[in-house]
Amino acid sequence: MVFFGTPAFAVPTLDALLSSPHTVVGVVTQPDRPRGRGQKVTDAPVKARAAASAIPVLQPASLKDASFLAALAALETDIGVVAAYGKILTDAVLATPRLGLINVHASLLPRYRGAAPIARAIIAGERETGVTIMRVVKALDAGPMLAEARRPIGPDETSEDVERELARIGASLLVSTLDRMAAGDAVETPQDDSRSTYAPRLTKEEGLIDWSRSARDVHNLVRGLHPWPHGYTFLKGQRLIVHRTSHVAGRGLGPPGAIVEASGDELLVATGDGGILLLSLQTEGKRPMSAREFLSGHHLGPGDRFTSVA
Questions:
Q1: Domain spanning 2-195 has what CATH number?
Q2: Which pLDDT value is given to residue 38?
Q3: Quick one: which H or E segment has residue 2?
Q4: Residue 284: CB atoms within 10 Å
Q5: Domain 204-307, what architecture?
Q6: Quick one: pLDDT at residue 234?
Q7: In whole numbers, what is the pLDDT of the chain averaged over residues?
Q8: Could you report how far apart the first and last alpha carbons of the chain are, in Å?
Q9: N or C: where does the chain have the smaller number of CB atoms within 10 Å of the terminal CB?
């Protein structure tokens, strides 16, 4: 088989395949790009794992490139597996493996089709998510489903927390699905398109906190956008990144964004409905700090206010 994947989410699936009876003859991953604060060009997680296992790696800039398509065809694969590759596959790619391609998708399809299913589910306040193994078709995440596994979302879990666990679940589910396909026992179930929702790619601008929203909505936004691009707000003209929060019930705490309590470990901010405890936040260019650390260098109190503008 040939494996398509790029980020850390895809590595457990590749590892599971390498430990299974199924043979990976090649890996397709995105081209090397600058990463991290220093913007150094480094191998993406899947490429690094493939290289360590001496598996041939293809990194086409375009999936329409003739030399790439020839190299893919030369692998003579029975089936392709996709896990967070990051590009929509072309008709030519879909037609190359003899048995087509299947995908490890981090949602309970048909909900949250698209690039950011985990974050979108958390931002929306979903209490359950999961992994679906589906056949890849030309339409985005719309192919028939072969298997699914469900998992609750904890009230304080971040996208990072949930993704780590779904990667593990998806890896196991993918291998068992391949086993059933090889045995001729797999059943493909069409998706109900009328129930589909879309999970578009995240943008930095979405992290701006609207303090007029409910405390639960703000909390869900912050944890959904962790570890990227993060929720953010402004205080006295300074941009602050919000890493961790907890929400509390209670009406009439003050106008949205107003600081209700700022002492010790408590940094409580009023929202449109309830309040938000800021547990970890970061000023531009500095490391993340606990509320206590932040308050030791910022003298705040009632009357001060977080805003949505600088």
A1: 3.40.50.170
A2: 59
A3: strand 2-5
A4: 9
A5: Roll (3.10)
A6: 97
A7: 95
A8: 52
A9: C
